[in-house]
Amino acid sequence: MKLLRHRDAIPPSRLERKFFLFWQSLGGPDLKREFRFHQTRKWRADFAHIESRTLIEIEGGIYIQGRHNRPQGFAADAEKYLEAALDGWCVLRLTELQITASTVERIIALIQTAGVKSV
User: Which of 49, 53, 59, 78 is the most exposed place for a label (fewest CB within 10 A)?
Assistant: First the structure.
């Protein structure tokens, strides 16, 4: 996956680039960027692993009272994540402090074993 294509409306943030560099260096499976996961709403996830139905959201601006922290933005995000979960998606939300090699490695392991059920 290329991180940015000419048709991408929004360039990746610094945190999205950091996450994706870890993802690539650790051998993570293919991800879709800016994936539209809802049939009627225009909601997009920062990254999606389609086969495991996993959405990965990189939450930026949490220390500067960004959009995710203001009441209206927080409520809109909660609605988006609820609808994703009700539609069968696993939603993983990462802050800057969670974007580490060890965390990304754990997420890759989770996705790689998503279809494997233990007895």
Answer: 78
Per residue in 23-61, pLDDT tens? 999 999 999 999 998 888 889 999 999 999 999 999 876
Place of tokens 């074993």: 113
Residues 6+ apart with CB under 8 A from 7: none
- CATH code of residue 60: 3.40.960
The pair of three-digit structure tokens given for residue 9, joined into one six-digit string: 């409306």
- Expressed as residue numbers, the domain containing 102 is 30-112
Which ranges of the chain would DSSP assign to H, the alpha helix? 14-25, 71-86, 101-112
Domain assignment present for residue 80? The answer is yes
Give the chain's domain count.
Answer: 1
Angle at Cα 44 formed by Cα 75 and Cα 3, nearest 5°?
130
Query: Using an 8 Å Cβ cutoff, are 110 and 65 in contact?
Result: no
**Across residues 1-5, what is the average pLDDT?**
52
